[in-house]
């Protein structure tokens, strides 16, 4: 308390302790008011003289946290919440950033760049909920920058040992924030390793035998949205091939809304390594808009013609490879022969993995080869002729929830 209270005098008036409202939690507030009267300095700069009204709860103590903040706090802490006294007993200390302090800016420069992030093995997490989810899942924090001590006190104290705690101005956090509404807390964590993470019990209970493979997905908003859908559907894991945007990039984290700590994500994989991360009997299905195939006449007799689309000729995007091969005299027949099936035909009898192609080039040759070698196929979501393709995140969501529906129907629940 001593650190928070200083004595000031105004003219000839007696000296009164000045209490900074934002530094107080309810218990300390009561204690401060017992020494009443006190001057309370509010964040707005307003100074109000306050006395403790015997028998009445100090109004500001309750008001310090608005009902929304209290709800948020409860969500973050869970039922066994951290009591403020525990913080005091913990002996944890924090530093205040001094004018011209470069600690925040130098760390931010590092974690906002993918090469640095990868080299240093650090990531940036922003916001109270995301940080709390990360801690619950076992992510390891290294530094917290925060503008209000309450944000740190909400976190489980046992996870803060050995972590640098640095109080900075809200404006500084705002300058570096990726959020529309900056939340006043940022954490630098060691890059999470999916093997060492503990995913939420409810999530594990709802996991489906469906994996998702992102193939050269470049847009952070799309990837974040896909991760969120994957977590929502109960996908067992998400694999990202080399060429995808980094799953730990701030914009992906923002769009993911916590999915990073609900579903295992395996980043930066070579195609040869993909099967090692799938159950042995997995069939790989490639989501393919078949946009580069011609629409054929309805009289063709295979399944896909029911939907007005068939694979009538080799995809134009692969012609380039074929011609190169012809010049060099290599085999002409290496393009996988894969059945096109409608997304709502049954594809979940065996564990399945769905490949979603990137925004520009669609699915890769490697994905088609893997689908062929595992006995999978192409999944087509029929769209109105003339519409080329769906957004990758939309296609992924439709397919994952269709897979979930099929499994539910089969299990009779
Ligand atoms: C925007 S699309 C790719 C468009 C790309 N220009 C192409 O021609 O393949 C991104 C990915 O979403 C999936 N997708 C989009 N529309 C689809 C559809 N109608 N059926 C199945 N998958 C689809 C595919 O995996 C596709 O590669």
UniProtKB/TrEMBL annotation:
Q: Where is this region: Disordered?
A: 51-89
Q: Name one Pfam family in it.
A: MRM3-like_sub_bind
Q: Which SUPFAM superfamilies match?
A: alpha/beta knot, L30e-like
**Which residue stretches, if any, does this entry annotate as coiled coil?**
none
> Any idea where the RNA 2-O ribose methyltransferase substrate binding domain is?
124-195
| Transmembrane stretches, start-end | none
Give the classification, highest ranks: Eukaryota, Metazoa, Chordata, Craniata, Vertebrata
GO terms (BP aspect): methylation; rRNA processing
Q: Which PANTHER family match?
A: RRNA METHYLTRANSFERASE 3, RRNA METHYLTRANSFERASE 3, MITOCHONDRIAL
Protein's name in the database: RNA 2-O ribose methyltransferase substrate binding domain-containing protein
GO CC field = cytoplasm
Q: Which family does it belong to?
A: Belongs to the class IV-like SAM-binding methyltransferase superfamily. RNA methyltransferase TrmH family.
The answer to keyword Nucleotide-binding applying to this record is: no
Polar residues: bias regions = 73-88
Q: What does the UniProt keyword field contain?
A: Methyltransferase, rRNA processing, Transferase
Q: Provide a Gene Ontology MF annotation, just one.
A: RNA binding
The keyword Translocase belongs to this UniProt entry's keyword annotation: no
């Amino acid at each position: 308390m001593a650190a928070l209270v200083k004595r000031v005098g105004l003219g000839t008036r007696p000296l009164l302790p000045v209490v900074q409202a934002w530094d107080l939690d309810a218990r300390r507030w009561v204690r401060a008011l017992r020494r009443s009267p006190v001057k309370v300095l509010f964040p707005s700069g307003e100074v109000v003289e306050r006395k403790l009204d015997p028998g009445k709860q100090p109004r500001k103590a309750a008001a310090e946290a608005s009902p929304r903040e209290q709800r948020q706090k409860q969500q973050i802490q869970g039922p066994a919440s951290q009591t403020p006294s525990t913080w005091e007993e913990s002996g944890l200390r924090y530093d205040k950033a001094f004018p011209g302090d470069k600690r925040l800016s130098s760390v931010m420069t590092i974690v906002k760049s993918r090469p640095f992030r990868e080299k240093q093995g650090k990531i940036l997490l922003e916001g109270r909920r995301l940080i709390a989810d990360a801690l619950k899942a076992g992510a390891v924090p290294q530094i917290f920058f925060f503008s209000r001590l309450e944000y740190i006190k909400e976190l489980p104290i046992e996870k803060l040992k050995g972590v640098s705690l640095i109080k900075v101005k809200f404006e500084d956090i705002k300058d570096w924030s990726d959020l529309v509404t900056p939340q006043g807390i940022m954490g630098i964590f060691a890059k999470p390793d999916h093997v060492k993470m503990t995913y939420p019990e409810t999530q594990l209970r709802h996991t489906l035998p469906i994996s998702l493979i992102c193939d050269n997905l470049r847009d952070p908003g799309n990837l974040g949205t896909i991760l969120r859908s994957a977590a929502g559907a109960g996908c067992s894991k998400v694999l990202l091939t080399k060429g995808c945007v980094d799953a730990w990039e701030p914009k992906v984290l923002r769009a993911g809304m916590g999915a990073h700590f609900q579903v295992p994500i395996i980043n930066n994989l070579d195609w040869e390594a993909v099967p090692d991360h799938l159950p042995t009997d997995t069939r790989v299905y490639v989501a393919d808009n078949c946009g580069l195939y011609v629409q054929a006449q309805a009289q063709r007799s295979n399944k896909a013609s029911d939907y007005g689309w068939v694979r009538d000729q080799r995809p134009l995007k692969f012609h380039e490879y074929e011609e190169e091969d012809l010049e060099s005299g290599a085999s002409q027949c290496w393009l996988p022969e894969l059945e096109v099936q409608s997304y709502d035909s049954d594809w979940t009898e065996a564990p399945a993995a769905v490949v979603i192609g990137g925004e520009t080039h669609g699915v890769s040759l490697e994905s088609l080869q893997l689908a062929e070698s595992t006995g999978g196929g192409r999944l087509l979501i029929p769209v109105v002729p003339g519409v080329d393709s769906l957004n990758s995140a939309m296609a992924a969501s439709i397919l994952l929830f269709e897979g979930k529906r099929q499994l539910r129907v089969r299990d009779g629940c």
